[in-house]
Amino acid sequence: MESSSEGIRAVKFSLLGLGATSLFQLAIVLVSGSVALLADTVHNFSDALTAVPLWVAFLLGRRPATRTYTHGFGRAEDLAGLFIVAMIALSAVIAAVESIHRFFAPQPVQNLGWVMAAGLVGFAGNELVAIYRIRVGRRIGSAALVADGIHARTDGFTSLAVIAGVIGIWVGFPLADPIVGLLISAVISVLLWGTIRDIGRRLMDGVDPALTDKLGAVVHKHAPAESTSRLRWSGHKLHAEIRVPASALTDLAELSKLSGELKHAATHSLPNVGSVTVIPVFVKRTQEDR
């Protein structure tokens, strides 16, 4: 509950911060006609909107498991990550189409000083949101929130690219504006691949090998020989499953004591632990072992 509340606070801050930044930039787009600034503004709006599905996902994640969703609703957070991917892709397409159109139908860019100011505001707004999102996301273990923070940070640098377009126009190269718009689209596409990789890894139950090694060290220290373990993420919670040979346990009291030790050790060794399940299993013996 506490980690979900932190995530909700982060998305509220993101929505307000990027929403205000985007509205300021949109006003400058209307008076200047800068396609590079338009591309950056569209991307900032999409980045702000990604806070909405994350907000919903954190709320759903608080709900208890049901007979249908027996593992709870943590996966809603990963589904929200897919929406983030879709928004990034859409913003890249819009920015590219508008920039190509301006190559064939160029329009003068006015109020260059305001365009530069809007680029600086875009960078500052995105960087503040990025720092906050990444910090909270890493603390609570939310891949979607971290990805969204990296998304915002890249947006900040594309805002600085808008300033490069303004400088190009000042020195007498008007095509600098649509060229920068296309460069922004390319940067967004690179970011898109990284986000797809991170979200896809979570959906496929991928876990950082370093975390797997940490759990393995806990099992090696506290559990009987031949015990095995594995991890999976569900939203921003890490769930551990430890299998111990039933032949090494004498009774239920010993199993209960071992479970308590493993849960305590795993919780202190791993971040954002949601549950630790200890399962006694029968290990097949080969003829040589016998």
Fold and architecture overview:
With 290 residues, the protein is mostly helical. It is 70% helix and 9% strand. It contains 9 helices and 3 strands; from the N terminus they run ααααααααββαβ. The protein has helices at 2-32, 35-49, 51-61, 75-104, 112-140, 143-170, 176-203, 209-222, 252-269, and strands spanning 228-234, 237-245, 273-281. It has a 3-stranded mixed sheet with strand order 1-2-3.
Q: And the CATH topology of the largest domain?
A: Alpha-lytic protease prodomain-like
Subunit arrangement of the protein: single chain
Helix content: over 70%
Question: How many strands in all?
Answer: 3
SSE arrangement, N to C: HHHHHHHHEEHE
User: What is the CATH homology-level superfamily of the largest domain?
Assistant: Cation efflux protein transmembrane domain
**CATH C-level of the largest domain:** Mainly Alpha
Mean pLDDT: 78
- Helix-strand category: mainly alpha
What proportion of the residues form beta strands (DSSP E)? Answer: 5-15%
> Which second-level CATH architecture of the largest domain applies?
Up-down Bundle
Count of discrete structural domains: 2
What is the C-alpha radius of gyration, as a whole number of Å?
25 Å
Instruction: Give me the number of helical elements.
Output: 9
Q: Can you summarize the main beta sheet?
A: 3 strands, mixed
Contiguous low-pLDDT stretches (5 residues minimum) are none
Question: Distance between termini?
Answer: 50 Å
Spatial strand sequence of the major β-sheet: 1-2-3
